[in-house]
Specification:
By secondary structure, the chain is an alpha/beta fold. The chain has twelve helices and 15 strands. A six-stranded mixed β-sheet has the order 2-3-1-4-5-6. The protein has a four-stranded parallel β-sheet with strand order 8-7-9-10, sandwiched between helices. The chain has a three-stranded antiparallel β-sheet with strand order 11-14-15. Helix 3 runs parallel beside helix 4.
Length: 379
Amino acid sequence: MLKKLTLAVLATVSTAALADINVGVSVAATGPAASLGIPEKNTFALLPTTIGGQKVNYIILDDATDPTAATKNIKKLISENKVDVVVGSSTTPSSLAMMDVAVENETPLISMAGSAIVVEPMDAKRQWVFKTAQNDAHMATALVQHMTDKNVQTVAFVGFADAYGEGWYKEFAKIAEARKLKIVASERYQRNDTSVTGQILKIISAKPDAILIGGAGTPAALPQKALKEKGYKGLIYQTHGVANNDFLRVGGKDVEGAFLPVGPMVVAAQLPNDNPVKKSAMEYVTKYEAANGKGSVSSFGGHAWDAGVLLQNAIPVALKKAKPGTVEFRRALREALENTKNVAGAHGIFNLTPNDHQGFDQRARVMVTIENNTWKLLK
């Protein structure tokens, strides 16, 4: 009897030791933000399948750039797949839509979207939400600095009519005002619009020195194409939401000369050797291009990689407190993520706190221009 009991205990311990960690993923692999979601999806194939001695499963769903579908995905991942953490989504509207479900189920959510609103202002809901993409406010500071260095005095804005566009306008307007830049026009358009002629004509009539396009992915090329078609000669700026090769392909010669802030990973090979992010950025670039072809890497896949970096750091800490598949483990994982310190990702150095669930500083951004259909680091 004692022998049987001992064997039963050993079996239980063995089962616990081999419990899988389930990571749910929702990305925009199709729809208007597919140029963001596809490299993110590809990146999960590069992440480790064992962390802290535990097997890790990645369950990946496509939300088609639809917040409603993203909500359905996170519900399914939590209720059916019993995930310990969710990574997603590619866009700000979908990430915001997933937030309530994450909180209700005490499941950490790591967003790959750009807007600061995903993690700010910190409240009971956002305590469960983290993000790997640089905040729009962070990037806007670098962008406004470049404008003032170029003696820009008046600027116009045209951006998405959603949380991404509004978030960018809010942060940009705040910094622009502080730096004495006058915003002379502000327009919006939908991600799936095929024409923005009306908005562009209004903007050009305001005669701005520069124009900021607050869009992401390939739909952000539309306003710049329209500006070139109408003969606009001023400076054109884009956000870090366009930093992939699909944008360059769709924009072609019309996006040449645009300025934008990006994560250092985008131009990793051009970084000086003493840049603190170069080593970690090059690791991702090398692995992604080995799997998907030279020149295939994009900023957005880097955000998925960095979600993996955060989990590789936090999971071993959480495992010391609880077993995967339990609310105690999810709580421990949330706490471990929140206390991440000096962890190098593809886009920057993470230092998270209870009030900062993004954790990047100025090392997570550089300014580039588009030259000869590629990204060129501005010195």
